[in-house]
C-alpha cells in the first residue's frame, strides 16, 4: 500500500491534479532525510530553556524563508535555562570501570572538576522523622535513589525461556521490590522523586550530599528514560540498568564503592522561549485557518528523533510541498512548532491564548506527535460537523492513503497528552494523527535511543504527503466547520464534560 503511494501508482489514480502533484513531489524530491539530518544530528536535542532550542528556532526560520514561506518566532514566556556539557562517570573503587550514564536534565555540574564520593543506598524509613535523623549521614555521599532491578534481561527472555517457577519468582521479586521501595524508601521520607529527583533531591542537597544516582530502564529494550532534576547544587545522574545494579550490589555488600564525577553543565536562570510560526497567507479567506501542529521541544537523552523530530520535519515538508503546488490557498495555512509540550503543552496553550482571531477562524488543526510510523487513524474532535468534513476529505485521497487511514466518527475532544488538546478545549476541530507504533512507547519515547537512525523515512514521507493533501482539501472546502459539540455518552462523568482549558504556564522555574 505504501509502496503504491511512493511509487507513483497512487498519484496516477488521483483525479485532483493538485493531489497528484503533492504525491509526486513527496516521492520524487523529498527533503525529509536532509531536514532530519540537519535538525537531529547537527542541532540535536531541543529541550526548553536550552541554547539548542534557540538554535533550532532560528534554523526553522531559515528553512522556511529559503522556501519563500514567512516565518517568525513568538515569545511565549520564560523557562529555566540550562546548558548540558559532557558527563564523565567512573567507578574508581573497589575497581576501575567507566560507567554508562549521564546527567539528568537541568542538573548542576561539578564545576569542570573531579568529585569523588562514596555511595549509599536510600534506606527504608518508618516515617519522615526517621528520614530527618538519617540526613546527616548522607552529607558528602552519592545517594542511590532507585530500586535495583534483579535482572537487566528483557522480560520476554523469561517468558520465552524460563521455567514457571523462575517466572513466578521473578514476578514476586519485582512486585515486592517496587512496592517496598515506593512505600518505605521514598514515601517514608515525606518527599517525592517524581520523574527524576523531585522535592526529595532539594531536601537532601540542603545537607550537602555529593549527588544523586537514579536508573529508569525499560523491561524490553535496555533503554534509559532520562527526565529531570530540580537540584541547584547537588548533581543528579542516571546509570544504565547494568551499571546501576553493579554499584548497588557493591554498596549493599559493604564494599563502600566510590564514584568519580566530572560533569559539565550550567544553570542559566530564566530564559525566554519561543514558538515558531510559519504562514502561507490565504487569498480568499485569509482570516480562516488550517493549522499544522507539532511540538519542537524534546527531552535531551538523545536527539528527540521520534518525539518529535518526525512530527516537525513532516509538517515542514508538507508546507514546502504546499508552497510549490498550492501557493495561493483559499484559507491561510499555518504550521505551529510549539515549545514546552513536554512540560504540559505550555507553548501551544500560550498561542491559543494570544491568538483568539486564529481560534475564531480555525477551520481545522492537525497535530502529530507519536513517533515515526505511518498515520493509520485520526481521532475524533468532538464536533459532528467536523466528522462530516473530514470524511469527505478522506474520500478524495488516493486509494492507498484512503485505505490506510481509519476515522471512527466525532468521538471525544482531545484531553491532554499533546498539543491538539490546547485547541480542542476551545471547541475547535483539532485532530490528532495516530501513527503505527514501531515500539515507540517502550523504545524511543524519552529515551537515550531516540536518534536519527530510528526514523522510518518511507512512513514519514507518506505522512507529509497525507497532511499536505488534507491541508489543501480543508483550505478548499467551500464551507466552514460548525462548532456544535457532541456529548459522549460513555466514560466517567468528567469524561463526558467538555475539557476545560488550562492557563499557559509562562514562568517556569519550579517552586516547591
What does this structure look like?
- By secondary structure, this protein is of the alpha/beta class.
- It contains 19 helices and 15 strands.
- It has helices at 2-7, 9-13, 17-28, 32-43, 51-66, 128-138, 155-161, 164-186, 198-205, 241-252, 305-325, 346-354, 356-361, 384-395, 399-404, 420-424, 440-444, 457-476, 493-496, and strands spanning 70-93, 97-98, 101-103, 115-121, 142-144, 211-214, 236-239, 258-280, 285-295, 331-338, 362-368, 375-378, 406-407, 430-435, 507-508.
- It has a 15-stranded mixed beta sheet that branches.
- Helix 4 (32-43) crosses helix 11.
- The radius of gyration is 25 Å and the shape is elongated.
- The N and C termini lie far apart (52 Å).
Given the helix and strand composition, which structural class is it?
alpha/beta
Q: Major β-sheet, in short?
A: 15 strands, mixed
Helix content: 25-40%
Mean pLDDT level: 93
Number of strands: 15
Calculate the terminal CA-CA distance, rounded to whole Å. Answer: 52 Å
The DSSP helix count reads 19
Strand content: 15-25%
Oligomer: single chain
Rg of Cα set: 25 Å
Pick out the low-confidence regions: 1-12
- The 3D shape can be described as elongated
List key phrases describing it:
39% helix, alpha/beta, 21% strand, 19 helices
Helix/strand layout:
Elements: H1 2-7, H2 9-13, H3 17-28, H4 32-43, H5 51-66, E1 70-93, E2 97-98, E3 101-103, E4 115-121, H6 128-138, E5 142-144, H7 155-161, H8 164-186, H9 198-205, E6 211-214, E7 236-239, H10 241-252, E8 258-280, E9 285-295, H11 305-325, E10 331-338, H12 346-354, H13 356-361, E11 362-368, E12 375-378, H14 384-395, H15 399-404, E13 406-407, H16 420-424, E14 430-435, H17 440-444, H18 457-476, H19 493-496, E15 507-508
Parallel strand pairs: 1-15, 4-5, 5-6, 6-7, 9-10, 9-11, 11-14, 12-13
Antiparallel strand pairs: 1-2, 1-8, 3-7, 4-8, 8-10, 12-14
Amino acid at each position: 500500500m505504501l509502496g503504491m503511494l511512493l511509487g507513483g501508482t497512487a498519484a496516477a489514480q488521483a483525479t485532483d491534479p493538485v493531489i497528484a502533484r503533492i504525491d509526486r513531489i513527496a516521492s520524487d524530491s523529498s527533503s525529509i532525510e536532509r531536514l532530519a539530518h540537519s535538525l537531529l544530528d547537527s542541532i540535536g536535542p531541543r529541550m526548553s530553556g536550552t541554547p539548542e532550542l534557540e538554535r533550532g528556532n532560528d534554523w526553522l526560520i531559515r528553512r522556511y524563508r529559503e522556501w519563500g514561506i514567512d516565518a517568525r518566532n513568538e515569545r511565549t514566556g520564560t523557562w529555566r535555562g540550562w546548558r548540558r556539557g559532557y558527563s564523565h562517570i567512573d567507578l574508581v573503587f573497589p575497581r576501575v570501570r567507566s560507567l554508562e550514564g549521564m546527567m539528568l536534565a537541568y542538573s548542576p555540574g561539578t564545576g569542570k572538576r573531579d568529585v569523588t564520593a562514596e555511595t549509599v543506598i536510600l534506606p527504608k524509613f518508618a516515617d519522615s522523622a526517621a528520614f530527618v535523623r538519617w540526613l546527616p549521614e548522607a552529607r558528602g555521599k552519592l545517594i542511590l535513589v532507585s530500586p535495583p532491578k534483579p535482572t537487566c534481561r528483557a522480560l520476554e527472555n523469561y517468558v520465552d525461556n524460563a521455567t514457571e517457577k523462575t517466572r513466578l519468582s521473578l514476578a514476586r521479586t519485582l512486585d515486592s521490590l517496587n512496592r517496598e521501595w515506593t512505600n518505605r524508601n521514598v514515601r517514608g521520607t515525606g518527599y517525592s522523586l517524581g520523574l527524576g529527583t523531585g522535592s526529595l533531591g532539594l531536601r537532601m542537597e540542603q545537607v550537602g550530599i555529593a549527588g544523586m544516582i537514579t536508573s529508569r530502564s525499560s523491561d524490553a529494550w535496555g533503554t534509559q528514560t532520562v527526565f529531570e532534576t530540580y537540584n541547584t547544587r547537588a548533581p543528579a545522574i542516571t546509570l544504565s540498568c547494568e551499571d546501576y545494579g553493579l554499584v548497588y550490589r557493591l554498596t549493599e555488600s559493604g564494599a563502600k564503592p566510590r564514584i568519580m564525577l566530572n560533569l559539565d553543565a550550567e544553570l542559566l536562570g530564566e530564559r525566554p522561549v519561543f514558538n515558531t510560526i510559519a504562514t502561507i497567507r490565504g487569498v480568499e479567506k485569509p482570516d480562516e485557518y488550517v493549522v499544522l501542529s507539532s511540538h519542537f521541544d524534546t527531552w535531551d537523552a538523545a536527539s528527540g528523533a521520534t518525539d518529535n523530530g518526525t512530527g516537525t520535519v513532516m509538517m515542514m515538508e508538507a508546507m514546502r510541498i504546499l508552497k510549490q503546488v498550492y501557493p495561493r490557498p483559499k484559507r491561510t495555512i499555518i504550521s505551529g512548532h510549539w515549545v514546552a509540550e513536554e512540560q504540559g503543552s505550555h507553548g501551544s496553550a500560550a498561542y491559543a491564548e494570544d491568538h483568539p482571531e486564529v481560534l475564531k477562524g480555525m477551520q481545522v488543526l492537525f497535530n502529530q506527535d507519536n513517533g515515526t510510523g505511518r498515520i493509520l487513524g485520526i481521532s475524533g474532535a468532538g464536533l459532528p460537523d467536523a466528522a462530516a468534513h473530514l470524511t469527505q476529505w478522506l474520500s478524495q485521497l488516493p486509494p492507498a492513503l484512503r485505505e490506510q487511514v481509519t476515522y471512527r466518527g466525532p468521538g471525544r475532544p482531545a484531553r491532554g497528552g499533546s498539543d491538539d488538546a490546547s485547541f480542542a478545549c476551545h471547541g475547535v476541530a483539532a485532530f490528532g494523527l495516530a501513527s503505527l507504533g514501531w515500539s515507540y512507547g517502550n523504545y524511543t519515547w524519552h529515551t537515550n535511543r531516540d536518534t536519527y537512525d530510528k526514523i522510518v523515512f518511507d512512513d514519514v514521507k507518506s505522512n507529509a504527503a497525507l497532511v499536505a493533501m488534507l491541508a489543501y482539501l480543508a483550505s478548499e472546502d467551500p464551507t466552514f466547520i460548525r462548532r456544535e459539540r457532541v456529548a459522549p455518552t460513555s466514560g466517567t462523568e468528567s469524561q463526558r464534560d467538555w475539557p476545560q482549558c488550562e492557563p499557559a504556564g509562562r514562568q517556569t522555574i519550579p517552586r516547591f
